[in-house]
Design a protein that fits this description.
47% of the residues lie in helices and 15% in strands. By secondary structure, the chain is an alpha/beta fold. The chain has a 5-stranded parallel β-sheet with strand order 2-1-3-5-4, with helices on both faces. Strand 4 (82-84), helix 4 and strand 5 form a beta-alpha-beta unit. The termini are far apart. The structure holds D-ribose.
Length: 143
């Protein structure tokens, strides 16, 4: 199950991404928002991050205007590695190296065609499982 969420700035792109997930036969849960009326991105960043951190969903997709506020929010939740991606190279590398569990997108920065390719790359790329990457990811969580 994929958790997906956005603020008003990401609403239109979220609709396109959900249509794409449906076309791929991938299950998702929509954590809002549900219109283009102005809302506060931390509400949706936290909802998706908590769904992923609790194990309710395996991966998450977050969208706001820039992707910045919503990824900063998600990364405050323990166990979350949210990556703001504007290209497929980063989406692939953050899965292979960081085992990122949330991809964040900026709807006012990245067009829908590229955003969908980034989502596919993020969802389809496995973690490398390399010892050095496992070690570094563990270090992120250390105090
Ligand atoms: C909303 O106007 C905008 O601030 C938000 O979508 C996002 O870009 C914040 O980081």
């Amino acid at each position: 199950m994929i958790a997906i969420g956005c603020d008003h700035g990401g609403y239109a792109l979220k609709q396109e991404i959900m249509e794409h997930l449906e076309a791929r036969g991938l299950e998702y849960k929509d954590y809002g928002c549900y219109s283009e009326e102005s809302v506060d991105y931390p509400v949706y960043g936290k909802a998706v991050a908590n769904a992923v951190a609790s194990g309710e969903c395996e991966k998450g997709i977050l969208i706001c205007g820039t992707g910045i506020g919503i990824s900063i929010t998600a990364n405050k939740v323990k166990g979350i590695r949210a990556s703001l991606c504007g290209d497929c190279f980063s989406a692939q590398a953050t899965r292979e190296h960081n085992d990122a569990n949330i991809v964040a997108l900026g709807a006012r920065v990245t067009g829908p065609g590229l955003a969908i390719k980034i989502v596919d790359t993020f969802l389809d790329t496995p973690f490398s499982n390399d010892e050095r990457h496992i070690r570094r990811i563990k270090m992120i969580e250390e105090d």
